[in-house]
Amino acid sequence: MKQHLNTLLIAFAIILGAYFLGTAFKNRNKIQESIKVTGLGETDFTSNLIVWNGTFSKKNSILKDAYAELDSDREKIKNYLISKGIKSEEMVFSSITIDKEFDRSYDNYGNLTSSSFTGYKLTQSINIESSAVDKVESISRQVSELIQSGVEFYSESPQYYYTKLAELKVEMIAKATKDANNRALKIAENSNSNLGSLKNASMGVFQIVAQNSSEEYSWGGSFNTLSKRKTASITVNLEFTAN
User: Are 208 and 125 within one domain?
Assistant: First the structure.
């Protein structure tokens, strides 16, 4: 009886093995079909934070006098900006840099022949960070009024930022994912297939460029700070099974 049982078990194992082997052979060339799509999320927005920088300087052969003149200009700048509606807490003045300047003469071979001290040049910068974007933008364009009052002021182009980028990214990802899913459904419909489960998902880089511009995207992501009005976009790559 024991010998017959062993024989039956061996026969059953052979039959079971042959079944799995046959199934594997039958499906050896069967490839899991999939649908890969890329979705785009895009939106326009306006910056809600402006950063504006400027520098001013004074030169004098006497260091103490140069300090006094620079201090006078700093007060003129501060009072001017306050009169235009900028809050004092929105202004940050940097430390003062001091440079000794000389008049130098060289011969035809580039060798120094003489050097005479011309004075101390003191330079200071101001940084303004404000949510009053339009106001500060307008003031940055009127800076010639300061120059006319005798202040040697050099204005830089304002930079524009958005303080709610985290929320904006979430919104863009949702848009891009929905767009990708719609594309996948359409492809499946047109190919008489059924869209299966999600296999893989990846996100592209976040891009911020000026609105209505020819500004190019960057592989590492663009982050425009020179335009007040911007366009943000992101891509999402999805891969679904299909049957």
Answer: no
